[in-house]
Design brief:
The chain is α/β, with parallel strands linked by helices and 218 residues long. It has seven helices and ten strands. The protein has a ten-stranded mixed β-sheet with strand order 1-8-2-3-7-4-6-5-9-10, with helices on both faces. The longest helix is centred in the N-terminal third of the chain and has 25 residues.
Length: 218
């Protein structure tokens, strides 16, 4: 019995030492998360609710994120990315029901489409005619939604609510697959980083629902 406990203790200490060595080697700041648990997820949620923006892993690539209900935080991402103001971000949600909070009328056909493709790396662009959401749809009157297939993100979304998402790069440049590169590019322009190692994944598929037809855009 002692041998089992000793083995568990040694493994835990080794993991902690490895994390500390990585942090020391790369001179990582306090706002750089190497691991995440429920306390860290709560902290990230609080950061989003307070208007901060951060780089997080998704089920495809690393992205810059902010609360989808915070106008100033969304505008900050446009500035950080140097992105055209007329290009909307996608919105990550934790359920189909959350989509209706953004002025989308969920008919049986739309629900069936979402149930078939979610959770997963598929963005569905849907009509949005609600007032007050111009800062999200940027005059297009459509919004792209994705329910990611990622345990960490889904737990975060459950607590924080929907967040906007866009690749962690400067517009026009290639997306990054690791936090170090994101940090080199974005630096202190974002408030925090969450590391999940190197992400290797195919780009997400994008569909648009229009006139009762689902059209593949990518």
């Amino acid at each position: 019995m002692f041998g089992v406990f000793w083995s568990l203790y040694c493994n835990t200490v080794t993991s902690v030492i490895n994390v500390l060595n990585v942090r020391k080697k790369n001179h990582l700041p306090h706002n750089y998360f190497m691991l995440y648990n429920i306390d860290q997820i709560n902290n990230i949620s609080d950061d989003f609710i307070s208007g901060k923006i951060g780089v997080l892993p998704t089920d495809t690539i690393y992205g810059i994120h902010a609360s989808a209900t915070n106008f100033d935080a969304v505008e900050k991402i446009y500035t950080v990315k140097e992105r055209d103001k007329d290009k909307p971000f996608i919105i990550l949600v934790n359920s189909i029901e959350e989509v209706s909070n953004f002025g989308v009328k969920l008919n049986p056909q739309i629900c069936s489409i979402l149930e078939t493709r979610w959770p997963g790396p598929t963005t569905i662009v849907l009509p949005c005619t609600a007032d007050g959401l111009e800062y999200l749809h940027r005059g297009h009157f459509t919004l792209g939604f994705r329910h990611p297939n990622n345990q960490f993100l889904n737990k975060l979304l459950e607590i924080s609510g929907p967040i906007v998402s866009t690749s962690a790069n400067i517009s026009g440049y290639a997306p990054v697959d690791n936090i170090k590169t994101a940090k080199d590019i974005l630096g202190d322009k974002v408030d925090f980083y969450v590391d999940s190692g190197k992400l290797v994944s195919a780009p997400s598929e994008v569909y648009k629902y229009e006139n009762n037809v689902l059209i593949k855009l990518r």
